[in-house]
Amino acid sequence: MRAQAVLASMRAQAGVVAPVRPSQITWLATPSDLYDAIMQGITTARHRVWVASLYLGTHGTRELALADALGEAASKPGGPRVTLLLDALRGVRPINGRGEAPHSSARVVAHRVLRGGDIGTRARAFLYKVPTARGLAARALPNRLVEVLGVSHLKVCVFDDDILVTGANLSEEYFWFRQDRSVCVSSAPRLANEVTRLLEAVTARAYQLAPSLSLVPPATSLPLGDDVDAHARDDLTCDVDVDVDDDDVFIAPTLQLGSDGLRQDERTLSAVLDAAAPLDVTIASAYLNLAPPYARMLSECARELDVITAHPSCSGFRDARGFASSYIPEAYDVLGRESVASLDARLLHYNRPGWIFHGKGMWAHASDGSGLSLTSAGSSNWNQRSLSRDLEMQMLMVSSSSTFAASLHAEVAHLAKHAAVVEPTRGLNVPYVRRMAYGAIRSWL
Prior knowledge:
Elements: H1 2-14, E1 18-20, E2 25-28, H2 31-44, E3 48-52, H3 61-75, E4 81-87, H4 88-92, E5 95-97, E6 100-103, H5 105-113, E7 123-128, H6 136-140, E8 156-159, E9 162-166, E10 178-179, E11 182-185, H7 189-203, E12 207-209, E13 215-216, H8 224-238, E14 249-256, H9 264-276, E15 279-285, H10 292-301, E16 302-310, H11 323-343, E17 346-350, E18 356-357, E19 361-366, E20 373-378, H12 384-389, E21 392-399, H13 402-416, E22 419-422, H14 432-440
Parallel strand pairs: 3-4, 4-7, 10-18, 15-16, 16-17
Antiparallel strand pairs: 1-14, 2-11, 3-8, 5-6, 7-12, 8-9, 9-11, 12-13, 14-21, 15-19, 17-22, 19-20, 20-21
């Protein structure tokens, strides 16, 4: 009965809840596993390929091979229709290569995926700009800084009826030495159709990239939430009741773009955690700065709480140039420790020499022995940006399957293998002025 209550809460907010078997779910442990899964999906798809990411790398061997594979798939006789969705700001920003001239994701896509228009409409590319990045403030800021206003942070692929959800971008380091979280769900047509529908709602509001690098204006300027919420209501009113099988895993895809009034993921997660509590919870964030609504959810549902984040030496900003290189890892360390201390949780720092921690997600198990487990996988870092500024997609999964629960425990153990417990209030010597500065920019991080 408890599982039914949780599923009812899930469907009331997300609309579409698709059941799959645990055997259809594959967790990808390593960067190479992720790369191999994406390449296999592209090369074997027969009908549709959707790839959404913040950006596409421009110089590395694997990232360029991936771009070539997309173009080749679309150019095959009888091959799939290929659609690529990137962030508009990041997609046109030139990226430096080692000893090579900088060029943008958009240029790589036009040359290697769209192939100068030779393959017609079977390959499409879109650049989505969040509403907060379209105004006067955006035009006044330099290229790199304007991205603080918000980006399309989606990281999801659809290959026919298979879905791959990840926290990684399509960039070389994510395929070699960035530890992230990725999952494949195979042979799930209803789930794949719903993810495709959500992505189509985004592309309708995105610029289409022409082979000449010119941009075609969006088809509509209506708020993204209008489409997403309407689709969820329609599905809820016409769908049949979900039968609960203890061996099934129920999955709901959700979107979040708080700046545009779209809070589907926030509402769905809150409803599910409330119905499932009490829980033993682990969360991971590459950039830990818990937004107050997420902190409240965790304080109300979690009996025990572990938080995994990057040690500053494993931060994704550790090699960034200028201000970010010196202060952003420290800022997230300060804000992350404050978040954990306020929740009376256990903090773990991922610290693996030569690696970057980019993992994100939530894992939870019922504290009452009922066997209920749930996880949220996708692009959200649970911070202020994920809540209010960036466009995010999550997959919320709920099940009473012991096989599914064991896979979640194994995944957390894999991440924790390179993590050590840290006392949030000790060992951090940051001047008062810098602490105050980090607090002042909390809502932008």
